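Known limitations

Files may contain more than one protein. Parsers should not assume a single record per file. Below, a two-record file is shown to illustrate correct handling: read the sequence, read the token line, then continue until end of file.
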Amino acid sequence: ERHSRQALLENTRAQAKYQRLVSSMVNILISSGFVTESGSEIAGTGALADPELQDDLEILEHREAGLRLQYPNLSARLRLLSVCLGALPDVIQGNALATEILFPNGSSELVAAVYRDDRLSNYGIQLCAASARAALESCLERSNGQVRILEIGAGTGSTSEGVFDAIGDLKDRISFDYTDVSGHLLRSARARFRER
């Protein structure tokens, strides 16, 4: 079956803001050898009919579970990826908002787990917290009063939590302002970090 790129975009019912994304996904399929583009026509290749590919697609959920067991450090990322891919058609068609998928029922847990349960992210958070501690101590040495800290785009608060742990003993000498564009994330942080 052959289609023009425009016909493919129309068949996906992608909203205008997602048409570049869908077109990029077609380019990935082309570079991976699953479809070809000749002139203005796009067609599937024999790779799509490969029985091994079909078997892989049918056991994708089981393969994901196996990868989680084999690579527990990636479990949260795999979960997030699985949820996002499963919802992609609804998002590009405008039937769901991407933020509803990332933060189901207003919960930041799906995204926060990527930072909290990942060694590389934790290492980055530790470096940030140590740097914040060193900068704060330097400022306090030169200041007789309080030091104000402004965190812009705090998101799920995973990095904030690491910084709070690192500077907790100095909290009487600092003022910390936590910002994000998401009202939900701010309310969640307010409840989570109220005593910090």
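...continuing to the second record:
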Amino acid sequence: VLGLAPAPGVAGEAWGRALRDLATRGDSAVGVAGQPFRLAVASALWPDAGITPGFAFLADMQRNFSADVTTLDYKHQPEAAVRRVNAWSKAATSGQVPELVTRNLILECNGMLVTTAVYFNARWQEPFQMVDPGADFTRLDGTKVEAPRLRGYSTAWRVGQGADWQAAELPYDDERLDFLIVVPRGDFLAFQAGWT
């Protein structure tokens, strides 16, 4: 993950540092609709009632990911498990993701469910304009769907390209946060397999 060495704890510690650093950026920025800038990442572990995770594992999850741990009874109380996880997701995302899991997913869970919810509210440095009607968008399987499009351009964007990719970095209002878009040329799956 993130090109980090697989040494025990290293990836988790680096991820924890990255999240703490990101959470402090944008303090002076505003988000969309007049709301304050916000980046919130919440993680939780949901072990089944019959599972007892080791203390070292739980301590690592809490230290590096601030992960809450809540035991659920998947087999005997699946509806209660669905309500609990979805209530957590709704609260962690300021209502943007009110349904993260379904009853079928809970019933298929075999041991432990791991969830991460990300809520991000920031304003673009140069706002986009919605373009209607939507245009055809081609999915990986070749089917086409109509999708709304955004249009915009700014000289503040940084762009780059390689033999099999193009990229653009779009700044948010704060200028310390950017959105990086990488678009492969040609076969997406082959590109994805070679990207670390």
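Parsers that stop after the first record will miss the second one. For reference, the second record is described as follows. Residues 1-8 have pLDDT under 50 and may be disordered.
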